[in-house]
From TrEMBL:
It holds the Pfam family DNA_pol3_delta2. Keywords: Nucleotidyltransferase, Transferase. It comes from Fumia xinanensis. This is DNA polymerase III subunit delta. Gene3D superfamilies: P-loop containing nucleotide triphosphate hydrolases (3.40.50.300).
Length: 323
């Protein structure tokens, strides 16, 4: 991938592109924004551009670029959550600290990418802080975070913070149709609807069966609202009984769908599912459902009882639809 393949987010992309092609290079960057907005991809392109020995960085052809691509460049250090773990652990940060003090082997820089940096536990974050405070001059840190508020302020304040945002539906549509030229139009349309401007979510829809199931389930719940019978809503929600994670995912998926329904209600969509739902769900009702999904999601995350929340959700949906 190259810088110009990142959709939208012009200021962020230009800042990194200039920094990698001779502009002032900071010692630490923090790319933050919702999951699926392309932070991980941009972090890799930026790292490759810093290490590149060619022109028009990243040139994709020099030996440094090829090594980054293969994941074997000795001056690129990657830190990620270990598989199946919820946190980046202090041992990982200690090991990266050791590597940081070794001078670069092949390029003028040693680049460290820390993905989902907000998942560092407290001791890992403290260990990182020590090296962030006085890093060797040849080190560039690139942190990514889905949720910047979960990252200690002491870390964020030592980085140049750049936000990655979701893109317009128009940009997402153009990107999707050009990257999946053989994709069926109806499926691409649902992927667009599922992502609602979040390209990562749209790509996941194209690649992962579970996302398509999520879309179908959200659609079933949305359709149950249009009958205004409480029983139908309860039945549509029944697959999530005792499945807190599944229910949280439904809230996210239904939320994205309601954003489309609200737009469709003002007559400016070509997404057929949203257009059909907007015949029965008015824009204001879609907005109220959006607020409700937010509220229920935070209640569950603050240790709410999943089953109780599900019943509350059902009752409140019915009230919204009766207005
Ligand atoms: Zn290169």
């Amino acid at each position: 991938m190259m810088f110009d393949q990142i959709i939208g987010n012009g200021n962020t992309v230009r800042t990194l592109q200039n920094a990698a092609s001779g502009g002032p290079l900071n010692h630490a960057y923090l790319l933050h924004g919702t999951k699926g907005t392309g932070k991980r991809m941009l972090a890799r392109i930026f790292a490759q551009a810093i290490l590149c020995r060619g022109e028009n960085r990243p040139c994709k052809t020099c030996s440094a670029c090829l090594k980054v691509e293969k994941g074997v460049h000795p001056d690129l250090v990657m830190v990620q959550k270990p598989e199946g773990k919820a946190n980046i652990l202090v041992d990982q940060v200690r090991s990266l600290r050791e590597q940081v003090y070794i001078r670069p082997n092949e390029s003028g820089y040693r680049v460290v990418i820390i993905e989902e940096s907000e998942s560092m536990n407290l001791s890992a974050a403290n260990a990182l802080l020590k090296v962030l405070e006085e890093p060797p001059g040849y080190v560039v840190f690139i942190l990514t975070a889905n949720n910047i508020s979960a990252l200690p302020e002491t870390i964020a304040s030592r980085c140049l913070c750049l936000e990655m945002q979701e893109v317009s539906l128009y940009q997402a549509e153009k990107w999707l149709f050009s990257h999946y030229p053989d994709g069926e139009a109806a499926i691409l349309e649902d992927a667009l609807s599922y992502g609602n401007g979040n390209l990562g979510r749209s790509i996941a829809y194209m690649e992962e069966e579970t996302c398509r199931q999520g879309f179908d389930r959200a659609l079933t719940v949305a359709r149950s609202l249009t009958t205004e019978r409480e029983y139908d809503i309860l039945e549509a929600l029944s697959p999530f009984d005792g499945d807190k994670d599944g229910f949280l995912q439904l809230l996210t998926d239904l939320d994205a769908m309601m954003a489309q329904v609200a737009i469709a209600g003002t007559g400016s969509t070509n997404l057929r599912q949203a257009a059909a739902l907007s015949q029965k769900i008015r824009p204001m009702q879609a907005v109220h459902i959006h607020e409700l999904t937010d509220e229920i999601r935070s209640k569950i995350l603050y240790n709410g009882n999943g089953t109780l929340m599900q019943n509350l959700f059902c009752a409140r949906l019915k009230t919204i639809m009766e207005r």
